[in-house]
Design goal:
The chain is α+β, with helices and mostly antiparallel strands. It has one domain. It is built from four helices and four strands. It has a four-stranded antiparallel β-sheet. Helix 2 (28-38) crosses helix 3 (44-60).
Length: 111
């Protein structure tokens, strides 16, 4: 997939996320799955890099990052610093591409 194709897919993905925002939280796992499966990216480091690009755009559009105390909770505990740089830096620090993609309860969710 070319960079132009990825950017078009990313715009469509962000639009779908915005459209579904009121209905459900968005897990980092969904973003990573979009990059790996929809965009056909195989390399773990590239999945992380492109997922962080998507995260930055989502946060710039008002999505807020947080965590649940445990999977299935109904209250998302927002991270204190919601600036795009801080959110991307925190995910970058916590995501080890050598271990693959985040799982459903890993690192963060977005509202």
């Amino acid at each position: 997939m070319t960079a132009v194709d990825f950017d078009m897919e990313l715009r469509n993905f962000v639009a779908r996320c915005e459209a579904g925002r009121a209905e459900d939280w968005l897990g980092l796992v969904v973003i990573a799955n979009f990059v790996r499966r929809r965009c056909g990216v195989a390399d773990n480091a590239d999945v992380k890099r492109l997922s962080l690009k998507a995260v930055r755009i989502l946060v710039e559009r008002g999505f807020k990052a947080g965590q649940f105390k445990r999977y299935g909770d109904s209250q998302l505990i927002l991270w204190p610093d919601q600036t795009p740089d801080a959110v991307v830096a925190r995910i970058d620090k916590e995501w080890d591409p050598a271990k693959g993609d985040p799982n459903i309860n890993d690192i963060c969710w977005f509202e």
